[in-house]
Specification:
Elements lengths: L1 E3 L2 E8 L2 E7 L4 H18 L7 H7 L6 E2 L2 H14 L11 H7 L11 H8 L7 E4 L4 E4 L12 H15 L5 E5 L2 E5 L8 E6 L8 E7 L3 E6 L4 E4 L2 E4 L14 E8 L2 H23 L6 E6 L3 E4 L6 E4 L5 E4 L4
Parallel strand pairs: 16-18
Antiparallel strand pairs: 1-2, 2-3, 3-7, 4-6, 5-6, 7-8, 8-11, 9-10, 10-17, 11-14, 12-13, 14-15, 15-16
Helix pairs in contact: 1-6, 6-7
The structure holds adenosine-5'-diphosphate and magnesium ion.
The site of adenosine-5'-diphosphate has 21 residues, from helix 7.
């Protein structure tokens, strides 16, 4: 625990990520409850251990349907729906590819193409059967694996926000390894300041600062987890249509939204669309706003009704979508 001008902060490492909680009360009991809640959710959703509700589904692939809790079923139903959208990069059955590449888990070799082809055949979200009456999930092919890694942190950030609201907390921030969810704003400020990291920069180096009140800020960047091989960078956002990490002009996508789950879904979807198509898709989605950082050093903001952005790094050029 540390404190600075009335802010009390607690941190831990969970889900392989640094977790930070900020409150304006010195309430270690409440902080402990929040960390317990996160650990509980992780235990249910993880695919990085032998047992969880999601792993029970994966273990039964090709054999039988598995009934899960209402919360897990609803999250899977949401992931299923997003995975079936036309041209969606988001694919919650990407597990076999994630496990093979092992990016972020000491993976450092590029799998052979024939192996990737074989695994890609196990990543068709149409081969998942959901039964809302029994709350059951069936993966039709043996070897299929659900992976909720792209949305688990956002979902849990929203669960934490719901818990804090229920406890009548009016101002707080939870950072789950890059998924930031906020309640209100710190006293006497215009909002929470959330740093946007410089891609491949030092740990504390920022391109700019995003200011929000009671919103979620989610960033997905190719520099978060990757390995280099023969001069190429292989990062953790995979494309089940090619078997390889997605390769486009983007270094990071940040989404500002009410729900952190939406932030997580849209960072992946927009990452897959690229800047031009994203900006045009976002014009029809007033509650979802985004900041793109490109390989040619541009920072591009969509509309900015729910946030303010301040550029700190003069190596980057700030562009605002003038049509938004
Ligand atoms: P981070 O963990 O850095 O916040 P993201 O939220 O971008 O990252 O999610 C990346 C994780 O999502 C990967 O580690 C993997 O578990 C999973 N994943 C990778 N590619 C996809 C994809 N195309 N669709 C859905 N999930 C993916
Ligand atoms: Mg995500």
């Amino acid at each position: 625990m540390s404190t600075d001008e009335g802010v009390y902060a607690w941190s831990a490492v969970l889900m392989g990520s640094p977790i930070l909680l900020k409150l304006f009360d010195n309430n270690p009991t409440l902080a402990a409850q929040v960390f317990r809640l996160i650990r509980h959710q992780e235990n249910i959703l993880t695919v990085n251990r032998a047992h969880s509700e999601v792993m029970a589904i994966n273990h039964a692939a090709g054999q039988n349907a598995v009934s899960v809790s209402r919360e897990v079923f609803d999250l899977i139903a949401c992931a299923h729906q997003v995975s079936l959208l036309p041209d969606s990069l988001f694919n919650f059955t990407i597990g076999p590819l994630v496990k093979r590449w092992k990016i972020g888990f000491q993976g450092n070799s590029v799998p052979p193409a024939d192996e990737l082809n074989r695994l890609m055949a196990l990543t068709d979200p149409h081969n998942v059967e959901l039964d809302p009456a029994r709350l059951s999930v069936f993966l039709r092919q043996p070897g299929m694996e659900i992976d909720l890694g792209a949305i688990a942190k956002g979902y849990i950030a929203d669960v934490v926000r719901g818990f804090l609201r229920h406890q009548q907390v009016e101002r707080a921030l939870i950072n789950l390894g890059g998924n930031v969810q906020t309640l209100g704003a710190p006293p006497h400020t215009a909002g929470w300041s959330v740093g946007l990291k410089t891609p491949f920069g030092r740990a504390d180096e920022l391109i700019g600062v995003i200011e929000v009140v009671g919103k979620s800020v989610v960033t997905s960047g190719v520099y978060e987890r990757y390995f280099e091989r023969d001069g190429r960078c292989y990062h953790h956002i995979l494309d089940a249509r090619s078997g390889y990490p997605l390769d486009n002009e983007l270094l990071s996508v940040t989404v500002i939204s009410d729900r952190s789950l939406d932030g997580d879904i849209y960072t992946t979807l927009l990452y897959g669309l690229g800047v031009e198509k994203s900006l045009s898709a976002l014009r029809a989605l007033p509650h979802i706003e985004a900041i793109f950082v490109t390989r040619d050093a541009e920072v591009i903001c969509s509309s900015s009704r729910q946030f303010a952005f301040r550029l700190l790094d003069d190596r980057y050029r700030l562009i605002t979508d003038s049509t938004a």
